[in-house]
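Sanity check

After download, print the first record. It should look like this:
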Amino acid sequence: MPEILEVESYRELADRVVGATVVRGWADPYSAKKLSSVQQWARAVKGLKITGTSRRGKLMLIETSGPTLGMRFGMTGVLLIDGDAGIDGLFYGPHRFNAEWIRGGMQFSDGRKLLLHDPRRLGRFEIDPDLSDLGPDALTLTKKEFDQIVTITRGEGPAIKARLLDQSVVAGVGNLLGDEILFRAGIDPRTPSGTLSTDEKIRLFKAFTQTMKTLKKRGGSHLGDHMDGRHPGGMCPKDGGAMRIDTIGGRTTYWCSKHQK
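Expected structure tokens:
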């Protein structure tokens, strides 16, 4: 499941086509589901020159001589350019290529292709995507922005895991990163956001920033410290405690019964 770190690797890969001109674009009904038709993508991208790339959370942006193009990757989407993938594999992905899973893309005047490979069919293309519903980017989150995440003005607030997954609060944290950050911080993911102590907030911010840096170097959120214990009956790879499992914020969540309090 591509989260912010995987999408950042896609963005870096997409830098290869900066300066190229699009001669053809295509999309299937799945990747075009946020557009008026599959033909809209083909019409919109033809003749554009790629001028740059950027990203907000898990949304990759391709800047052009015309509209900004957006790519969302859903659960199993992978960016391919000239047969090269942004990452080697995804935790819940099939770990193999199938031509039938190509959902669309662009061909450039030099013959190269940018493709969306997506078995689960949840990825999509967008044209001039609206960023107003996205919070600050998780990779560049400042202490001030973090303080806003953990500041609750009414009641105890949602579970901290659900708060981290709220893309309108902070853009880019997915299920695996959320579990990894809380695992490193030693915080129970069920803890109401508004009840975090000063010490817990300090630990959480430190874990947040270090997790982003460390897993980016490793190659993605699917390479976290807690992954060996992330299965029913698993044991914590840090202290041997039994791993608990529940649904928090709509996502399957794992945490250690021993050190995450």
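If your output differs, re-run the checksum step. Summary of this record's structure: DSSP finds six helices and eleven strands in the chain.
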